[in-house]
Design goal:
Strand order of the largest sheet: 1-2-3-4-5-6-7-8
Helix content: 40-55%
Structural class: alpha/beta
Distance between the termini: 19 Å
Radius of gyration: 18 Å
Shape: globular
Bound molecules: flavin-adenine dinucleotide
Strand content: 5-15%
Order of helices and strands: HEHEHEHEHEHEHEHHHEH
Number of helices: 11
CATH class of one domain: Alpha Beta
CATH architecture of one domain: Alpha-Beta Barrel
Largest sheet: 8 strands, parallel, barrel
Oligomer: single chain
Length: about 290
């Protein structure tokens, strides 16, 4: 089923994200974790794509397994900035062979020196989206950044390019993680005002490794509310306590989002079935 049709239903949706193995060696353990999450029967699951495309086969394999063997709609991520058109087209052919019709089209992170290669065949996600539209009957989503993408001069510029991405054929958007819901509400107001009307799926990260996440957020400029910092400061070095607190914080965030009319929640469950299950159980009467 196409993600846009799932999002059009009259219900709140809950989806989970997993990532593919880096090598054949851990394929089985990743497959086990992803299928355990699939057994929770989320509305769909997304499967990330390794930067540089090295694990592209695994993304398609995992997405196909979830769909065909567990009956869960899957969304395969696909990045483009480090790939040639030929490489991208090969992945698209495999998606078609496997009967997968949903793609999250991304640029991917830039190489370490953060410059776009002059001879790159794709510079931005919108070019990939345009290309994918010509290649098949796919439902295509894209990423968005409530706090602005790190490379953007300001939020206004970022939203201008986001509009271009939607105009290129992006049918829904998934947000980068955020820890203060007001940031999402403000972002939605701004993008709707600029004529971006596609469904926006709120991306929620249950933090299970507090200190690592705090460093990542400080580097990327993600705003950390005082309440969140206090939790990480207190429990960041105690994994089980951090996991419990992280699940509780994410649950609170989701309840507030749903109470304020947000209809689509995507949990960055990071191959952790117990985290996905914990959140789903906490919401059992709220998201059915
Ligand atoms: P774009 O939409 O191309 O935007 C990138 C930057 O370029 C932004 O600053 C934008 O404002 C600017 N821009 C866009 N168009 C133009 C233009 N025409 N001229 C000038 N500037 C422009 N990475 C992975 O490697 N694998 C994954 O599976 C993955 N999944 C993700 C899922 C989500 C929900 C999110 C939020 C991110 C994900 N990422 C993933 C990270 C993503 O690849 C990076 O954030 C990347 O830096 C930007 O990708 P994008 O598709 O948003 O890029």
């Amino acid at each position: 089923m196409k993600i846009k049709d799932i999002l059009a239903q009259d219900k709140v949706t809950l989806s989970f994200e997993v990532f593919p193995p880096k090598t054949n060696l851990n394929y089985e353990s990743v497959e086990k974790a992803t299928t355990e999450i699939a057994q929770l029967k989320p509305d769909f699951m997304s499967v990330t794509y390794g930067a540089g495309g090295g694990t592209s086969e695994f993304t398609v394999d995992i997405a196909s397994n979830l769909y065909h063997n567990y009956g869960v709609n899957s969304l395969a991520h696909l990045t483009c900035v480090s790939s040639t058109k030929e490489q991208v087209h090969r992945v698209v052919e495999r998606l078609k062979e496997e009967g997968l019709e949903n793609i999250l089209a991304l640029r991917g992170d830039l190489p370490k020196d953060r410059t776009l290669l002059e001879n790159a065949e794709y510079q931005y996600a919108s070019e990939l989206i345009y290309d994918l539209k010509q290649l098949g009957d796919f439902c295509i989503g894209g990423a968005c950044y409530p706090e602005g993408h790190t490379e953007s001069a300001n939020k206004e510029e970022d939203i201008k390019y986001l509009k271009e991405k939607v105009d290129a054929g992006c049918e829904f958007l998934t947000t980068q993680m955020f820890f203060d819901n007001n940031i999402l509400y403000n972002f939605l107001y701004r993008i709707r005002e600029k004529g971006i009307t596609v469904p926006v799926i709120a991306g929620i990260m249950p933090v299970t490794n507090g200190n690592q996440m705090k460093r990542i957020c400080e580097l990327s400029g993600t705003y950390l509310p005082t309440r969140f910092k206090a939790i990480v400061d207190k429990f960041g070095d105690t994994p089980d306590a951090m996991k419990q607190a992280g699940i509780a914080y994410a649950t609170d965030q989701i309840i507030d989002l749903v109470a304020n009319g947000i209809r689509h929640i995507h949990v960055y469950s990071m191959n952790k079935p117990e985290v996905a299950a914990g959140i789903q159980a906490n919401l059992s009467e709220i998201i059915k």
